[in-house]
Amino acid sequence: MKLLVLLFACTTCTEEGSRTAFLVHKILTKTRDPELREELQIFSLQLLHRKVQFTACGFFPLDFSLLYSIVGAVTTYLVILIQFQLAVPNTNRNETTSHGRGTA
Question: What is the pLDDT of residues 85-102, one digit of tens each?
Fold first, then answer.
């Protein structure tokens, strides 16, 4: 459950970062103050060149794709485990049948 909360927060923040870049550009086109315009240009360039993304020490991104990968891996391992269980004959059954021999 903690993982879901973490991934939801990271994904939401990443989406808001993308939306922020759009809003900064929109404000940039409407402002007339030269100082504010310069700051907004610098901030807009920074948002353009650096994608807002949370990672686990740079190894993999923390978003819902991580959850999809975890679910896919667990499902794959469960299918393999089930196949192994079906392939191994059950030795717990009592096989005392008389193969064609009649008992009198």
Answer: 888 776 666 555 555 555
DSSP string of 71-101, one letter each residue = HHHHHHHHHHHHHHHHHS--TTS-----SS-
The DSSP secondary-structure symbol of 33 reads -
Which tokens belong to 36?
Answer: 């504010």
- DSSP state at residue 57: T
How many residues are listed for the chain in this entry? 104
Q: Which residues of 13-46 are buried (b: 16+ CB within 10 A; e: fewer)?
A: ebeeeeeebeebeeeeeeeeeeeeeeebeebbee
pLDDT, residue 70, reads 92
